[in-house]
Design a protein that fits this description.
Blueprint lengths: L29 E6 L11 E7 L5 H9 L2 H8 L7 E7 L2 E5 L10 H17 L3 E9 L6 H12 L4 E6 L6 H12 L8 E4 L8 H12 L43
Parallel strand pairs: 2-4, 2-5, 5-6, 6-7
Antiparallel strand pairs: 1-3, 3-4
Helix pairs in contact: 1-2
Bound molecules: guanosine-5'-diphosphate (GDP).
């Protein structure tokens, strides 16, 4: 049946409305282990994606949205685990990794110093790490900790995808304006960037597509002609491989049209 825009998705190649795309594997997420020392890390094989963010930017809410598993983020919030690297198994070879929130005012300096090296070693040396999702509050984007993490991630050669979360708090125009402004930042030249709302699900399909691409789903649905909700006006930066409206995560500044 054609929808109100005249698109007949039943006849399209992927049978999926672009805004409805979900990477089903994510729903299988199960908490497995909290790591505070490098030696505790699971075997470095298969593929994993890590998610990080300044405290209160909405990392737990994003995890809930992404996996549709409310209990997961509760696990990460258990006392003692907020400063750990929390692992969620997706299947025998794939994992989601919840990195410690940063920017906590309350964390003692000693603790800050002790988890820094773990995180640093993890980002530098983890062979199975396919990409890093960084959650920011769209109203306070790119704080110093965010910038440090992005710079370090890029230095380690990690693909980075930034969520401008809580986009529901801004008008659509204001959200797109922040997106456009950030896209001009040199630091973000080779970084994926999208509007997101853990509350409304805005941009969820784009995030699922990014994770499917990183975690190796064999075929990521494409749907020509449709625009992404979270990246309207950014068609120039689509990835050429499956992610119809993905921001290319490894493109050079020369590929940017702005
Ligand atoms: P974390 O500390 O990064 O894990 O952040 P939480 O997921 O605990 O979220 C912090 C606060 O922001 C909570 O009150 C959430 O309900 C709220 N929040 C998270 N995501 C969104 C969003 O997309 N929109 C709105 N309006 N609020 C959000």
């Amino acid at each position: 049946m054609p929808d109100h825009k005249g698109n007949d998705y039943a006849l399209s190649m992927d049978h999926t409305k672009p805004e409805d795309y979900r990477f089903a594997l994510l729903r299988q997420a199960e908490y497995s282990i909290s790591v505070t020392k490098t030696a505790q890390l699971p075997a470095d094989e298969g593929a994993e994606v890590a998610i990080a963010g300044r405290s209160n930017a909405g990392k737990s809410s994003v995890l809930n949205r992404l996996t549709e598993r409310r209990s997961l983020a509760r696990v990460s919030r258990t006392p003692g685990r907020t400063q750990a690297i929390n692992y969620f198994t997706l299947d025998a070879q794939r994992r989601l990794v919840d990195l410690p929130g940063y920017g906590y005012a309350k964390v003692p300096e000693a603790l800050r110093l002790s988890w820094g090296p773990l995180l640093e070693r993890y980002l530098r040396a983890r062979g199975s790490l396919r990409g890093l999702v960084i959650v920011m509050d769209i109203r306070h984007p790119l704080g110093p900790h965010d910038a440090d993490l992005i710079a370090f991630g890029r230095e380690c050669g990690r693909p980075v995808h930034v969520l401008l979360n809580k986009a529901d708090k801004l008008s659509r125009g204001a959200g797109l304006q922040v997106l456009a402004q950030l896209r001009r930042e040199a630091l973000l030249a080779e970084v994926g960037l999208q509007l997101f709302s853990a509350q409304t699900g805005l941009g969820l399909a784009d995030l699922h597509r990014q994770l499917a691409a990183w975690l190796g789903e064999k075929e990521t649905p494409t749907s020509a002609g449709a625009e992404s909700e979270s990246q309207i006006g950014e068609k120039d930066s689509r990835s050429g491989q499956g992610g119809r409206d993905q921001i290319e995560t490894a493109r050079g500044p020369s590929a940017r049209l702005e």
